[in-house]
Amino acid sequence: SPERAAPERAPRIYTRTGDSGFSSTFTGERRPKGDRIFEALGATDELSSAIGLAGEFSSEKGHTFVDQLHKVQCMLQDVGSNLATPLSSAREAHRKRTSFSERPVLELEQWIDSYSEQLPPLRAFILPSGGRSSAALHFSRAVCRRAERCVVPLVQAGEADPNVAKYLNRLSDYLFVLARYAAMKEGKEEKIYIKPEP
């Protein structure tokens, strides 16, 4: 009877399937954890975490772009799905489910143009600075560049969609522009590179 039904158990977080140093792609293929697919997935996960931190700092300052950062984090989940589906072992059903279109790339370009129009001209090399929101966005940009470096070899090998690499490339530009915008809106000074005296 329902009264005597055993309570549902929450699924375990650990599976032990990776204890031998291997992990599974979405296609079910087992690869070493040091495989470049998992390197790219890890870098993308770290990027989403960095953006999450930047979003929290930005939310505290009432920035209206926080919703965009949340959307980016959702897109990074889709990036991860594409990366976890190596085209060399993917069936057509896998490819359809994890395809990555150019639409998000174009959306980032629109956002970049919108913020760039509001910023003062760039006349010096800017150091990561400009308050917590800005600095965290600069940090996210640096992590994004690393994720892109991990993804490009997969695209070149035909294992991932080229739009994934394009997205990460535009995303780093977006994060740079957004960092400058956050500093401007908060009235924080951006530190610039000054060449040391010889």
Automatic annotation (TrEMBL):
Region: Disordered, residue numbers: 1-30
Family to which this protein belongs: Belongs to the Cob(I)alamin adenosyltransferase family.
Record-annotated Cobalamin adenosyltransferase-like domain positions: 13-182
Start-end of Polar residues biased regions: 17-27
Single Gene Ontology BP annotation: cobalamin metabolic process
Source organism (scientific name): Vidua macroura (Pin-tailed whydah)
Protein name, per record: Corrinoid adenosyltransferase MMAB
Molecular function terms from GO: ATP binding; corrinoid adenosyltransferase activity
Ranges in a coiled coil: none
Gene3D superfamilies: Cobalamin adenosyltransferase-like (1.20.1200.10)
Described function: Converts cob(I)alamin to adenosylcobalamin (adenosylcob(III)alamin), a coenzyme for methylmalonyl-CoA mutase, therefore participates in the final step of the vitamin B12 conversion. Generates adenosylcobalamin (AdoCbl) and directly delivers the cofactor to MUT in a transfer that is stimulated by ATP-binding to MMAB and gated by MMAA.
Reaction(s) catalysed by this chain's protein: cob(I)alamin-[corrinoid adenosyltransferase] + ATP = apo-[corrinoid adenosyltransferase] + adenosylcob(III)alamin + triphosphate
